[in-house]
Design brief:
By secondary structure, the chain is mostly helical. The chain is built from twelve helices and no strands. Helix 4 packs antiparallel against helix 5, helix 8 packs antiparallel against helix 9 and helix 8 runs antiparallel to helix 12.
């Protein structure tokens, strides 16, 4: 079974250069995977740094939504497959050279970890919650005793998951726009940024919100650097990659990318976060929502623009 069929069986490479809302599964899957990876990264990070009391939302509350994010993302991926009954074959072998194999096995680790984080903190929502099954009680005690190694495993695989969402595209040599090593770090940084934004939205702690506003500012700066570097690399490369870059530099995706992703998704929330850190009263919902919006738009636009780019004959 070819990986291109497994990854996106119903996506038409000769797509009209306008966002096609019917083919939403893969971009949604990549966005939710990156968002879950970002939240789990920060949860594990502050456990390792022993700052769970300073960042209660990041460590205890935000991870509660990660199982749902991953399940919805996996359902979206399954819906996009042409050969749905055979998805289990991904778990019968490990191919080091295959991005899909890396992704399948990474999700096999990250998804149970997300349930563990949620289960350990479920009392944040239901204070009277009690595990009535003896085995589950013993498992909870064991997890709490071994929370540090669990955190190290979580932070490692959340980084792999975040990078994988970009490598999934960059492995396609047939699509010049996707065939760049920048996509892995870019999607990881974007996932961390959306994770930070989700934590800001959920937090009621002013100090925690400000801390994540600073983190998000740094991540936005890195994203802008990577985007700039990506286009500079394209314009200094072969003719097909120059043509791929022109999809965003005067081509059909120019307005959507620079307005929705760079403008509303990065520059505007960064400006609002700077104002907030300068003690201006900015509703946190505005910059955080814009970051999430920019994150999902980036994946949709790159997904469809990548299919519009091709080798010249």
């Amino acid at each position: 079974m070819k990986e291109e069929i497994i990854i996106s069986g119903r996506m038409n490479p000769k797509i009209d250069p306008v966002l096609n809302i019917w083919h939403w599964e893969i971009p949604l899957y990549l966005f939710l995977g990156g968002l879950a990876a970002g939240i789990l990264f920060f949860a594990a990070l502050y456990i390792i740094l022993k700052k769970e009391d300073e960042f209660p939302t990041a460590v205890k509350k935000a991870p509660l939504i990660t199982p749902f994010l991953l399940i919805i993302g996996l359902i979206a991926l399954l819906l996009d497959l042409n050969h749905k009954p055979y998805f289990w074959q991904l778990y019968t072998t490990i191919k080091i050279q295959s991005p899909m194999s890396w992704g399948a096995w990474t999700l096999m680790v990250v998804t149970p970890l997300s349930f563990i984080w949620a289960a350990l903190n479920i009392k944040e929502i239901f204070p009277t919650w009690d595990w009535n099954i003896s085995f589950l009680k013993q498992f909870e005690i064991w997890c709490r005793k071994n929370i540090l190694p669990i955190a190290w495993i979580t932070i490692t695989f959340s980084v792999i998951l975040g990078i994988y969402t970009g490598i999934l595209f960059s492995a396609f040599n047939a699509r010049p726009l996707w065939n760049t090593s920048i996509l892995g770090p870019l999607f990881l940084t974007s996932g961390l940024s959306t994770g930070a934004a989700a934590i800001m939205l959920m937090s009621k702690n002013h100090i925690e919100r400000k801390a994540f506003a600073r983190i998000d500012l740094l991540l936005i700066a890195i994203e802008l650097f990577l985007i700039t570097h990506m286009f500079m690399g394209f314009m200094a490369s072969t003719q097909v990659q120059i043509e791929a870059a022109r999809l965003f530099l005067g081509g059909p995706y120019t307005a959507s990318f620079w307005v929705f992703v760079v403008g509303l998704g990065l520059v505007v929330p960064a400006f609002l976060e700077v104002l907030e850190l300068s003690r201006r009263k900015i509703p946190v919902i505005v910059p955080a929502t814009l970051v999430l919006f920019g994150g999902i738009m980036m994946r949709f636009i790159l997904a469809y623009a990548g299919q519009a780019s091709r080798w010249l004959y």
